[in-house]
Amino acid sequence: MNETVQVAGIAKRYGKSTVVKDVSFTLRAGETVALVGHNGAGKTTLIKLMLGLIRPTTGAVRVLGEDPATGDVAVRQRLGYLPESVSFNMALSGRETLRFYARLKRVDATAAEQLFQRVGLAAEAVDRPVRTYSKGMRQRLGLAQALLGAPRILLLDEPTSGLDPALRRNFYDLITELRGKGTTVLLSSHALTELEGRTDRVIIINNGVAIADGTLEDLRRIAQLPTRITVKLSEIDAAPQWANGGMNWRRGADGVLDADILPDRKVRLLHQITADAALISGLTITEPTLDDLYAHFLKAQVTK
Ligand SMILES: Nc1ncnc2c1ncn2[C@@H]1O[C@H](COP(=O)(O)OP(=O)(O)OP(=O)(O)O)[C@@H](O)[C@H]1O
């Protein structure tokens, strides 16, 4: 896969405080990456560094092979950005707003028109002043602005905050479509649950340090957190042999057994359980969530 963004050993200092510390990662074409972290962790600062709005104190950022702060304007045209709080001129209509940004970005304003449909902004709304827009409509307009000029890299800061579930789904559908076309999408978020299954990779930032970087599978493998296995027995008082093996099975009154199983025992145990098909009427496997992994990596960093 083509590398589109390279962040190499960057630090950012403001006066005495270092808000980004020795962060390195690479983003590739067609990859959707989530940047997650608490408030103040350094997510927006990293996005600003990739946009070239601020310079790293040490280290280097390359976007499509160039320094985004000094490189060719063509590189900046290939970068789309949705800020955390989109604020537009309330007196302008959606159409005027998009034309304004198209001129700033030096892209064809007529092509911009198609973006309204793409982001799901109703035709009747585009000529109304932005002041009459709901939060979701403003966010769609913001996204249309970020998509101007068909960027190869999209940097989206908290793009789904304040969106209702239907809009959020639309948003992720659009991201999936862009990913299929080879766009690199980096989105920062606090909403860990909604990111599961929607991003290829997760980078966890804490106090300016990248404490984890990988696919959900990678993070699960590194964290070695247990998987919860829940078995519904066909007969309430059945005593399957696999439930004696010192795994701390909890037995509910309704014939439900559950236990937290470490990764190295999981597959073997599942074989044993499913071989006992007559004894079981249900089986649920609950893998650690991104929330669990996030908590794990934060704790691991604190206790280091
Ligand atoms: N221009 C600045 N001058 C001084 N400190 C700054 C500046 N910009 C950001 N910071 C500090 O850097 C740290 C990281 O801020 P940043 O906005 O990157 O966090 P964030 O992860 O995006 O948080 P949030 O989720 O709240 O947006 C914070 O402690 C913030 O106060």
UniProtKB/TrEMBL annotation:
<protein>
    <submittedName>
        <fullName>ABC transporter ATP-binding protein</fullName>
    </submittedName>
</protein>
<keyword id="KW-0813">Transport</keyword>
<dbReference type="GO" id="GO:0005524">
    <property type="term" value="F:ATP binding"/>
</dbReference>
<dbReference type="InterPro" id="IPR027417">
    <property type="entry name" value="P-loop_NTPase"/>
</dbReference>
<dbReference type="Pfam" id="PF00005">
    <property type="entry name" value="ABC_tran"/>
</dbReference>
<dbReference type="InterPro" id="IPR003593">
    <property type="entry name" value="AAA+_ATPase"/>
</dbReference>
<dbReference type="InterPro" id="IPR003439">
    <property type="entry name" value="ABC_transporter-like_ATP-bd"/>
</dbReference>
<comment type="similarity">
    <text>Belongs to the ABC transporter superfamily.</text>
</comment>
<keyword id="KW-0067">ATP-binding</keyword>
<keyword id="KW-0547">Nucleotide-binding</keyword>
<dbReference type="InterPro" id="IPR017871">
    <property type="entry name" value="ABC_transporter-like_CS"/>
</dbReference>
<feature type="domain" description="ABC transporter">
    <location>
        <begin position="5"/>
        <end position="232"/>
    </location>
</feature>
<dbReference type="InterPro" id="IPR051782">
    <property type="entry name" value="ABC_Transporter_VariousFunc"/>
</dbReference>
<keyword id="KW-0614">Plasmid</keyword>
